[in-house]
Structure formats: structure tokens, C-alpha cells
Write a structure and sequence with these properties.
The protein has helices at 9-17, 21-24, 29-39, 47-56, 60-75, 90-100, 104-113, and strands spanning 80-82, 85-87. The chain has 114 residues and is mainly alpha-helical. The chain is elongated. It starts with 8 loop residues before the first helix and ends with a helix.
Length: 114
């Protein structure tokens, strides 16, 4: 039986106030939605590699959250050089990566919002 469930609500609230946001973000989907921007996006040292890894691993829920937050800046980004290709925006680059890794969800998500 879950021992925490037996604790009085007042005590749970006190304990919860000591749990850092860095920990809360991983507890549930609700907290991920609530805190992902401030805690995850701003702390990723190689953000572009992280986004590509989401595409490769089909982490579509997380990609969509970040995409919705970053869409405006990705549409207005500078030119991206990748190998012998040039992409006018990060949005176009990520769509290319989605197609390359056969991630139809991300490809359709970007296509549908362009």
C-alpha cells in the first residue's frame, strides 16, 4: 500500500513544497506540460541535437510541445546549412529530418502548420 496516500494532506503539501521543479517536471504529464519550457528547453546545451533525437526516437508528444512553443522562432530563423543542403528555416530542416527518419507524425505536424 502507498504510504504517502495515508499521510494527511497538510503534510503532503509541506513535502511537495520541498520538491524542486527539476524533479516535478518528470513526475507526470501534467507537470511536464507545466514546467517543460523553463526547465528543459532553457537547460539543453545542444538544443538542435536534442530536437533531432526526439525525431529519431519518435518522441512525438515532447516534440509537439516544443514545436508549439518554438514555432514562431523556427519559422523566422536564419538559413541552416546541413551537408550540401541549405534550409531557409529550422522548421524546414526538422521536416527534412522527420522525412529522413520516417517520422510521419512530425512531418505531418510541420506540414499542417506551415
Amino acid at each position: 500500500m502507498d504510504i504517502v496516500a495515508k499521510l494527511p494532506n497538510e503534510l503532503k503539501e509541506i513535502v511537495w513544497s520541498y520538491v524542486s521543479l527539476d524533479e516535478k517536471v518528470w513526475i507526470s504529464k501534467y507537470y511536464y506540460d507545466k514546467y517543460h519550457n523553463a526547465l528543459i528547453i532553457n537547460k539543453i546545451p545542444e538544443f538542435n541535437k536534442y530536437i533531432i533525437s526526439l525525431i529519431i526516437k519518435n518522441e512525438n508528444y515532447i516534440f509537439e510541445l516544443i514545436y508549439n512553443d518554438m514555432r514562431a522562432s523556427w519559422k523566422n530563423s536564419n538559413t541552416i546549412l546541413y551537408g550540401n543542403r541549405t534550409f531557409l528555416t529550422y522548421e524546414a530542416f526538422y521536416k527534412f529530418k522527420a522525412n529522413a527518419y520516417n517520422n510521419k507524425y512530425v512531418s505531418e505536424l510541420i506540414k499542417g502548420k506551415q
